[in-house]
UniProtKB/TrEMBL annotation:
It comes from the Bacteria. One of its GO terms (molecular function) is oxidoreductase activity, acting on NAD(P)H. This is Flavorubredoxin. Residues 251-393 form the Flavodoxin-like domain. PROSITE patterns: FLAVODOXIN_LIKE. It comes from Bacillus benzoevorans. In the N-terminal section; belongs to the zinc metallo-hydrolase group 3 family.
Length: 410
């Protein structure tokens, strides 16, 4: 069943109610979900987000009864995941004049996903506005909530926020507004936050800051209930649940370095961890007492181990530490390998092998993708030559990821 509800003058919810038990992000959505899209019937008709690709045809047919598709001027894509952009391929064909509005990182994704290489795109940046003929849209970038390319859209005249996944609930609700649900939706709202947003809570502050200069009277997300009462309460839930709380977490970084590039990685890991108030002990294994390193590891919550690669192997006395670690009970600690290299970086993989012989929770890219969908965090942390630019950013993302794991641990 397609929804069609007027939220404000010429603003319509046109989404799909999916009341199956929906498999999603390795969860089963027991209460189903909705894919909320929005039609703004202004002088330059605009669609904000679409629906899951399974329902794209139904969505476009439904939309065609509400507006001349060829008159649509803009299709705003807040987030490229196919449960929201899935109707874009068909809608673009039926609305050939429409410009697709999205962030810069979204452009290539949409082109590749839906073969839109010859299509007009309007790339918007943080704070940009768009006149859609009688209404004004304002855009705010919200990177990593929950994927890199995401943004939120705000209708200035109607004070409605369209944040796509953010502030959603996974409920196949037949009452559109939360205040008419007939039950308190808070548990569903928090459950959604925990499942989808919490792994990215480091970025919630960007969202909260973005909301500060917006007078939001209604939140129209892309899953579940529309919020028009107690807006502040729902925003507060995001803000309070994203705050780092446990104090006293400790990390050890132990490394050996050939030409100081691995040392620089270690120092950057330390910097990012310390920004999250994690106490860090940094050891060059060639210059530190092994007993002291081992003692620190015993008391650490996370252990990073790194080496430069020289002649396809680790360097210095690092292996002595690793051998000792395989004899220790390191249960409950997070482990991660890192290093700089010039050709293949074998040392990093050897360190990873040692770490996986322990009973630590050893981080891997595969695990990160499976648990969070993040593709810009990599473990082991491999840096070719000196860490700078994009490679340095990768190091910092990985440190931030471990910091978040530590700070969310009870
Ligand atoms: Fe509802 Fe990230 O998709």
């Amino acid at each position: 069943m397609m929804n069609q509800v007027m939220l404000a003058e010429n603003v319509y919810l046109v989404g799909k109610n999916d009341d199956r038990k929906v498999p999603f992000h390795r969860l089963v959505l027991e209460k189903g979900t909705t894919y909320n899209a929005y039609l703004l019937k202004t002088e330059k008709p605009t669609v904000i987000d679409t629906v899951d690709m399974e329902f794209g045809r139904e969505f476009v047919e439904h939309l065609s009864k509400m507006v001349e598709l060829k008159d649509i001027q803009y299709i705003v894509i807040n987030h490229t995941e196919p449960d929201h952009s899935g109707g874009l391929a068909l809608l673009s064909r039926r609305a050939p004049e429409a410009t697709i509005v999205c962030t810069e990182p979204a452009v290539n994704e949409l082109k590749e996903m839906y073969n839109l290489h010859s299509r007009n795109f309007l790339v918007v940046k943080d704070g940009d506005t768009l006149d859609i003929g009688g209404k004004t849209l304002k855009f705010k970038e919200t990177p990593y909530l929950h994927t890199q390319e995401t943004m939120i859209t705000y209708c200035v005249e109607d004070k409605i926020l369209f944040p796509c996944d953010i502030f959603s609930t996974h409920v196949a609700n037949h009452e559109v507004f939360a205040d008419q649900a007939g039950f308190d939706i808070t548990d569903d709202f928090i459950g959604y936050y925990q499942a989808i947003i919490h792994p990215h809570r480091r970025y919630v502050k960007t969202l909260i800051d973005a909301l500060e200069d917006l007078d939001v009277q209604m939140i129209a997300p892309s899953h579940g209930f529309i919020l028009r009462e107690d807006i502040e309460k729902y925003v507060d839930i995001y803000e309070s649940m994203s705050v780092d709380c446990p104090a006293g977490k400790k990390a050890v970084i132990v490394y050996t370095t050939w030409r100081n590039s691995t040392k620089k990685i270690a120092e950057n890991l330390k910097k990012v961890l310390e920004e999250s108030n994690i106490e860090v002990s940094l050891f060059n294994a060639d210059k530190s007492d092994k007993a002291e390193i081992i003692e620190s590891i015993k008391h650490a919550d996370a252990v990073f181990v790194g080496s430069s690669t020289k002649y396809a192997d680790m360097i210095g006395r690092l292996e002595d530490v690793l051998r000792e670690m395989t004899k220790m009970n390191l249960e409950g600690k997070i482990g991660a390998a890192f290093g700089s290299y010039g050709w293949s970086g074998e040392a990093i993989e050897v360190i990873q092998d040692y770490l996986t012989q322990t009973n630590m929770d050893v981080q891997s890219t595969s695990q990160v993708i499976k648990t969070t969908g993040m593709t810009d965090v990599e473990f082991p942390v491999r840096v070719r030559f000196a860490p700078k630019g994009e490679q340095l950013r990768k190091v910092e993302h990985s440190a931030a990821y471990v910091a978040d794991l530590l700070l969310s641990a009870v």
